[in-house]
Inverse folding.
């Protein structure tokens, strides 16, 4: 692959080498510190990314720095600032303080910026010393895109002095437009319904880019909080990078939201994508992972022709701040910048004290290392805590006689978050930081009235995470990398088996693709098969309810309880009440059943504890560490024994 330092080979008179740098999906990971494990880490943090940014800036004469959104939510520091300390008008959020010190040129907001409500967002952004733009988030929707009244400026033009290859200075006007997924209005409906409306990203950009050009922009850059999805534009699409790249007048795309890295081999072979040069539909593009794991770099060679600037050539790359060793450990590639450490010092100390508050104990480890292949204590405790909360709330009501079941999914199960993105709580005392590890998002508890048939559909939707497995074949990949772990619900209070040799009933988006397929079998409660018309209460979250719109299979959700308590608060209450997860055998649970003679492979944490053959005939074999730092595991026929349970 071409190295950044070789581009461009020479810069002539009337040519400008302009470098665009990107951070994205920082999620308030300011410092290289893991609050969940209460120790430093080399793989994340804006402070360490800032050290790399300093190096990248020093390599060139002309450089701009952008952030692509999701910077105000997603870590214990973010939780402390939003829920414990609070943020009043005029307060300086430590993330904004750090971004000010680092000298960002512009930013956009992501969907998670809205998680704590509009007042919090506006208070945080009020102290930003750089423009923050968002074109498709409107408080009033007009007759056209241009007539919308947006919550933030839709775009801005940065006027910068740049130096060409002969040393001559020029004024360059860079137009910057911000875009985010229209699904934001669904995911944060409680905060946004009737207050903020979201237009389609492609529609918005297509309408506004000509106006940005007419306003004098020499170059137009999209800060698009969106990933790489379908090639053809579909109204309301969440991951719209390819259709956006096809818009005339757009020169470069800074991407995010998906927590992926582009360019990377993961996108090799896709139509219109060049992973060697880092282009989509011929336009330079970059996506810099998440949590400060990478810094995105787009190098542009601008040529001045007839008084106008055009992109003559480009190169894009995503630079990691750490690399994996063969033993699964990581070593940093950049030193943390002292300015950022200083900006975060007070909030860091307060966050550690806040997260150290004791809440209870567990007699078994609570990990998500095997959550995608077996019933696990970490997910069970979350599901049981939510079910207990709802059961108490329904006492004396019309639904009090119905069994209450709890749904939970592993928020942290590797994937795009990397090999350290797992919950890993040892047996012993537990503190508030462990509650945040188990339940990192500010979702409220919801309860639905469902039938046995709908319960089965719910589980079939989760079972779509598995790729088709054939009998007699060795080392087949098990888990679909495009299926997010947070959509893999297990349900506590029932028993069932998932058979991935059967075709998936739903795809990764929840669309019914095979009405005849049934991967879930043996659905029962207390040893008795569940009838299709049997009634239950199913606890879920405000996020899941908003994202679903309909229960898998098409039924409208029948909401019977909305709690003001967030999932993490309910989980904390459960521990504080004296409940303790232990090794007591559970009467209910789920297991994976592979076809005869088959073995599968999956990736998990390098810290996973493998203990050979388990009851039920399941065997887990260590296949070593991947280049990305995951541990690859072979799984053979049988059933994984649950690794613990939530004691009632």
């Amino acid at each position: 692959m071409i190295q950044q330092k070789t581009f461009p080979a020479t810069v002539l008179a009337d040519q400008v080498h302009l470098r665009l740098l990107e951070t994205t999906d920082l999620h308030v990971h300011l410092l290289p510190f893991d609050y969940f494990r209460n120790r430093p880490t080399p793989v994340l943090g804006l402070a360490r990314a800032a050290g790399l940014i300093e190096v990248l800036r020093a390599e060139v004469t002309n450089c701009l720095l952008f952030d692509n959104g999701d910077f105000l939510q997603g870590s214990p520091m973010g939780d402390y600032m939003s829920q414990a300390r609070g943020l009043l008008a005029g307060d300086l959020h430590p993330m904004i303080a750090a971004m000010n010190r680092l000298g960002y040129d512009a930013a956009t907001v992501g969907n998670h910026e809205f998680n704590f409500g509009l007042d919090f967002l506006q208070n945080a952004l009020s102290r930003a010393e750089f423009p923050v733009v968002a074109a498709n988030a409107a408080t009033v929707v007009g007759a056209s895109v241009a007539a919308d009244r947006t919550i933030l400026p839709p775009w801005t033009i940065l006027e910068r002095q740049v130096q060409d290859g002969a040393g001559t200075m020029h004024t360059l006007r860079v137009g910057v437009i911000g875009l985010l997924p229209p699904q934001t209005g669904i995911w944060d409906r409680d905060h946004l319904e009737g207050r903020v409306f979201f237009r389609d990203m492609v529609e918005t950009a297509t309408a506004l880019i000509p106006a940005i050009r007419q306003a004098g922009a020499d170059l137009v850059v999209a800060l698009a909080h969106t990933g790489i999805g379908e090639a053809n534009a579909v109204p309301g699409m969440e991951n719209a990078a390819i259709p956006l790249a096809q818009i005339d007048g757009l020169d470069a795309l800074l991407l995010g939201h998906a927590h992926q890295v582009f360019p990377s081999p993961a996108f090799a072979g896709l139509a219109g994508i060049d992973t060697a040069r880092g282009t989509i539909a011929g336009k330079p593009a970059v996506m810099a992972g998440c949590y400060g794991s990478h810094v995105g770099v787009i190098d542009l060679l601008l040529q001045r022709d007839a008084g106008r600037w055009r992109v003559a050539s480009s190169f894009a790359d995503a630079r990691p701040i750490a690399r994996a060793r063969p033993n699964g450990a990581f070593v940093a590639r950049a030193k943390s910048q002292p300015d950022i450490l200083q900006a975060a010092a007070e909030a860091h100390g307060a966050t550690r004290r806040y997260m150290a508050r004791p809440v209870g104990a567990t007699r078994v480890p609570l990990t998500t290392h095997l959550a995608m292949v077996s019933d696990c204590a970490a997910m069970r405790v979350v599901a049981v805590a939510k079910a207990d909360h709802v059961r108490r709330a329904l006492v004396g009501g019309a639904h009090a006689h119905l069994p209450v079941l709890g749904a939970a999914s592993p928020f942290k199960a590797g994937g795009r978050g990397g090999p350290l993105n797992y919950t890993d709580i040892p047996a012993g005392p537990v503190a508030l930081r462990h509650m945040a590890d188990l339940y990192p998002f500010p979702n409220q508890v919801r309860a639905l009235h469902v039938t046995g048939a709908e319960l089965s559909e719910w589980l079939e939707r989760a079972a779509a995470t598995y790729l088709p497995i054939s009998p007699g074949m060795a080392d087949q990949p098990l888990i679909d990398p495009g299926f997010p772990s947070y959509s893999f619900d297990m349900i506590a209070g029932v028993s069932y088996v998932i058979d991935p040799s059967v075709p998936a009933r739903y795809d990764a988006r929840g669309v019914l693709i095979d009405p005849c397929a049934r991967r879930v079998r043996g659905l029962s409660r207390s040893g008795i098969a569940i009838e299709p018309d049997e009634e239950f209460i199913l606890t879920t979250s405000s996020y899941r309810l908003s994202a679903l719109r309909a229960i898998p299979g098409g039924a409208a959700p029948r909401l019977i309880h909305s709690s003001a308590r967030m999932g993490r608060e309910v989980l904390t209450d459960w521990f504080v009440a004296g409940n303790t997860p232990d090794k007591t055998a559970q009467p209910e649970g789920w297991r994976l059943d592979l076809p005869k003679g088959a073995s599968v492979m999956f990736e998990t944490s390098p810290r996973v504890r493998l203990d050979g053959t388990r009851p039920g005939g399941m065997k887990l074999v260590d296949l070593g560490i991947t280049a990305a730092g995951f541990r690859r595991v072979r799984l053979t026929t049988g059933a994984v024994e649950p690794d613990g349970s939530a004691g009632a």
About this structure: Residues 357-636 form a domain with the 5'-nucleotidase;  domain 2 fold (CATH 3.90.780.10). Confidence is low (pLDDT under 50) at residues 644-648. Residues 466 and 580 are 32 Å apart (CA to CA). The two ends are 56 Å apart (CA to CA).
